[in-house]
Amino acid sequence: MREREKEGMDYGGKIGGSERGGPCGACKFLRRKCVKGCIFAPYFDSDQGTAHFAAVHKVFGASNASKLLMRIPAHKRLDAVVTLCYEALARARDPVYGCVGHLFALQQQVHLSIN
Ligand SMILES: [Zn+2]
């Protein structure tokens, strides 16, 4: 469980711009041309970003994710993308509770440490 959790949730610097030259992870997944100014390009690289985007697309839909990102200021988009990825990967792992399952577990740890 611990190992899977680390794999699924480790973003350690992995979210970041695609080195121009190939499509970003989102466009690679959607098999479309990655245009200059692609809303996803700064956040989904063509390596791990593709897997992250696949989860985001499955849970929220690519179009909804793009609309959401366009509505918020550029300097807040990274936080939004990290959150979208976190929730999407958690939902993929736990279809019933998603990230709420993780919250329950943390809440229980707090509860146990208080009592
Ligand atoms: Zn793109």
Descriptive account of the structure:
Helix content is 63%, strand content 0%. The chain is elongated, with a radius of gyration of 16 Å. It starts with a helix and ends with a helix. Helix 3 crosses helix 5. It has one domain (2-114). Mean pLDDT is 86; it is low at 1-14. The chain is mostly helical and 115 residues long.
Which class best fits the helix and strand makeup? mainly alpha
Extract low-pLDDT stretches: 1-14
Figure out the total of helices: 6
In total, how many domains does the architecture comprise? 1
**Which shape, going by the Cα principal axes?**
elongated
Provide the succession of SSEs: HHHHHH
Largest sheet entry: none
Key features of this structure:
binds zinc ion, disordered N terminus, 115 residues
How are the elements arranged and paired?
Blueprint: H1 2-9, H2 25-30, H3 48-59, H4 62-71, H5 74-93, H6 99-114
Helix pairs in contact: 3-5
This protein binds zinc ion.
Give a summary of the structure in a few sentences.
Helices cover 63% and strands 0% of the residues. The chain contains 6 helices and no strands. It is elongated.
